[in-house]
Structure formats: structure tokens, C-alpha cells
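[recover] target loaded
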């Protein structure tokens, strides 16, 4: 099956039947074509691509999250690259800025497929038995686990931490999307204090509901102080917003760890964003 995407991202498949944009001159034989659109602001381009591919293929369908697809049992490498797995759909919460509850509804658990990058919308919202089975699967992977879908700090418990410590971890992702989330992320910081900063990332949505620039920056700073590397994301509703340059600059700085670490080093000479081994080697060279 041919899969078509309106834009290239790091998550799309890389096989010979995955395409970005219009049909190429040298095309695969006639077979089903599925145009997948993730972002609502790409819907018009998705519709155009569906028309363009329909000039060459007899079975072309348009869908994806942007068209409110409910989502079903995950098929590895079909619409995302190898290594990604999704073991559940939906979310138990109804955050006003999030599309997931209206698109996918509450939590639905599916058979677990191998992968080391877990993209569930809310893995911790699943049953304990399902979560334990996911970690059992992760323990057999050749890569360290990346919990990229995010670990819901409102649901995080000590037994989750015990499971995290039982496997190899590449990245743990959390979220702090509003000021009200700060007390909960502070509690999470205590629970995951045994993990190094390099493994702890935190999505930080900024600009929602009239948030002031200084307040957004203060929240990003606080998340960093708590031991997480923030990943800033400008709030985007269904119709894409065009933010002023000041907001774009703040978002650019806090979505690149190298940038904000360099900024902190510049303003604080004692700041040393190095791991223990690097510090040790540096000290040996000074002797």
C-alpha cells in the first residue's frame, strides 16, 4: 500500500512506498493509496494530494488525525517509521486545548506490538496489567525505551517508577501545559530524581488562553530548574495561529536544549551542562 504525506517529519516511514507530496514520474504499480494528514492546517494540501494521486491510481483515500480518524489497532511501520509503537488510543481527560478526547474518546487498549518508541496519548491511563505488559515488551527491545507520548504526571505512581527502573531508558517525556501543572510536575520531579536530566524531557505548551510572554518564560525556567529539559510548543488551535517574533524566538530557544544551555552558561559562568564523566575527565586534564 502506498502512503502519502503532505510534509516530511522525522516520524514518517522511510520505505519505498512512502511518499511526501505529488506522485513521482517513476511510480509503483497500481495499488491502494492512503493520504495521511496529521495537522489540521495541512488539510487543504492533503485534499490536493488525494486529487493528484487519484489521477494515477484507482483507489485513493484521504484520512489521518486531522480528519478526526478514530484510530484503531496499530500496524507497525504503516504510517510511522520503524521503532514506533502505539498500544492504546484515547485519553481519560478532557483538556480544553487537546484534540484527542473528541477524536479518539476514552482509553482503548490494543494488542501490544514491538517497538521502543511508545507514542500512546496516555499510557498511564491504561490498566495496570496493560502497562506491565508494555514494559515487559520494552525490556526485550534492542534499544532503550523512549516514552515519547508522555507520562501523565497526574497519574504517576511509585510502581510506575519501579517499572521504569527495570528497563533501559532513552527518554522520559512529561508535560507542563499550564501554570496549574507546576505543583504536579514538582511532585514528578521528586519521583524521577534518580534519572539524569539527559533522559528527562518535558513538553511545555505556551501561549494558550492569553498567556503573557513573561509568564510562559517563567514556567519554562521553572521546568528546567526542576531537572527536566523543556521542549516548548506554541499553542495551535484548529486554524493555525501566526505568533509575533518575540513568541517565536522564545519557542525556538526553549525547543533546542543546546540553545538554552548555552544561554545559561553565558549568563552563569559556574553553570556546567556536563555529565559526571565529562567533569571527571576535564578535572584530570587540569591537573
Amino acid at each position: 500500500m502506498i502512503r502519502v504525506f503532505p510534509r516530511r517529519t522525522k516520524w514518517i516511514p522511510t520505505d519505498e512506498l512512502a511518499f511526501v507530496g505529488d506522485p513521482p514520474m517513476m511510480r509503483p504499480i497500481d495499488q491502494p493509496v492512503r493520504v495521511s494528514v496529521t495537522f489540521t492546517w495541512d488539510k487543504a494540501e492533503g485534499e490536493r494530494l488525494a486529487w493528484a494521486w487519484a489521477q494515477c491510481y484507482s483507489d485513493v483515500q484521504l484520512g489521518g488525525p486531522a480528519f478526526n480518524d478514530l484510530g484503531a489497532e496499530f500496524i507497525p511501520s504503516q504510517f510511522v517509521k520503524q521503532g514506533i509503537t502505539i498500544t492504546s488510543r484515547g485519553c481519560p481527560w478532557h483538556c480544553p486545548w487537546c484534540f484527542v478526547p473528541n477524536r479518539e474518546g476514552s482509553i482503548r487498549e490494543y494488542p501490544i506490538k514491538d517497538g521502543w518508541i511508545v507514542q500512546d496519548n496516555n499510557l498511564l491511563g491504561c490498566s495496570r496489567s496493560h502497562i506491565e505488559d508494555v514494559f515487559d515488551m520494552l525490556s526485550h527491545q534492542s534499544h532503550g525505551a523512549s516514552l515519547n507520548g508522555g507520562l501523565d504526571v497526574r497519574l504517576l505512581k511509585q510502581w510506575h517508577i519501579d517499572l521504569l527502573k527495570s528497563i533501559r531508558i532513552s527518554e522520559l517525556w512529561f508535560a507542563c501545559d499550564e501554570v496549574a501543572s507546576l505543583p504536579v510536575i514538582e511532585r514528578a520531579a521528586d519521583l524521577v530524581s534518580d534519572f539524569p536530566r539527559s533522559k528527562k524531557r518535558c513538553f511545555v505548551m505556551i501561549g494558550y488562553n492569553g498567556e503573557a510572554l513573561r509568564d510562559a518564560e517563567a514556567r519554562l525556567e521553572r521546568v528546567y530548574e526542576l531537572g527536566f529539559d523543556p521542549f516548548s510548543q506554541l499553542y495551535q488551535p484548529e486554524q493555525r495561529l501566526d505568533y509575533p517574533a518575540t513568541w517565536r524566538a522564545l519557542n525556538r530557544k526553549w525547543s533546542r536544549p543546546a540553545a538554552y544551555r548555552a544561554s545559561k552558561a553565558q549568563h552563569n559562568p559556574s553553570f556546567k551542562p556536563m555529565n559526571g564523566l565529562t567533569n571527571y575527565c576535564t578535572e584530570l586534564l587540569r591537573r
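[recover] notes: DSSP finds nine helices and twelve strands in the chain.
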